[in-house]
Write a sequence for this structure.
C-alpha cells in the first residue's frame, strides 16, 4: 500500500505494531481535526539535566605577572644599555615569584610553572646585569685618566678634524 502513515503512529514505537498506511483523504481528515499534528517530535523519558559547569582550579595572576616581568628584565639586561633596569626588574621578579609560588600552593593554583619560569628569567637577568655592571665598572676604573683626557680634548676641539683625532687617540689609549 502507498500513502501516508496514520498520525500518532510512530515508526519504531515499542508497541511492536506495524505501520498502517492510509490514503490522502484520511490523512487530510486527521490533519483538519488537529490529531497527531505536532511541530516537534515526541520524546519519551525524562529530560536530561543540563551539563554542570566545569570545576576549574584557580589560576594565579601573580604568576603571569612574574613571568612577564622576568622576561622583560632579561631583555633589558641583555640590551647592555638598560642593564641597571634589568637588575632591578630581576630582583622584583624573584621576590614576587616566590610570593606567587607560595600563594599558588596555598590556594591550589594550576599555573605555578609560569611563576617558576619568571623566577628563572629574573635570576638570569640578575646574573647578566651583575656581570655587565662589574665589567663596565672595571673598564671605567682602569681608564679614568683616558676618559679625562678625552673629555678635555673634545672640549678644546675647534673643528671636525680635531674631534676626529680626539676619538682616534681615545680608541688607541683605552684598555679593556
Amino acid at each position: 500500500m502507498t500513502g501516508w502513515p496514520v498520525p500518532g503512529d510512530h515508526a519504531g514505537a515499542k508497541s511492536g505494531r506495524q505501520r498502517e498506511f492510509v490514503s490522502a483523504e484520511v490523512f487530510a481528515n486527521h490533519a483538519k481535526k488537529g490529531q497527531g499534528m505536532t511541530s516537534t517530535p515526541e520524546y519519551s523519558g525524562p529530560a536530561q539535566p543540563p551539563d554542570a559547569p566545569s570545576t576549574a582550579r584557580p589560576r594565579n595572576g601573580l604568576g603571569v605577572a612574574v613571568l612577564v616581568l622576568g622576561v622583560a628584565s632579561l631583555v633589558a639586561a641583555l640590551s647592555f644599555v638598560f642593564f641597571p633596569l634589568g637588575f632591578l626588574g630581576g630582583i622584583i621578579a624573584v621576590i614576587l615569584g616566590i610570593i606567587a609560588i607560595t600563594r599558588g600552593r596555598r590556594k591550589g593554583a594550576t599555573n605555578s610553572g609560569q611563576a617558576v619560569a619568571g623566577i628563572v628569567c629574573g635570576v638570569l637577568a640578575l646574573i647578566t646585569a651583575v656581570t655587565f655592571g662589574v665589567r663596565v665598572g672595571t673598564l671605567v676604573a682602569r681608564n679614568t685618566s683616558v676618559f679625562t683626557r678625552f673629555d678635555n680634548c673634545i672640549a678644546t676641539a675647534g673643528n671636525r678634524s680635531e674631534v676626529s683625532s680626539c676619538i682616534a687617540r681615545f680608541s688607541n689609549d683605552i684598555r679593556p
Remarks:
- Residues 4-33 form one domain.
- The mean pLDDT is 80.
- Residues 10 and 106 are 59 Å apart (CA to CA).
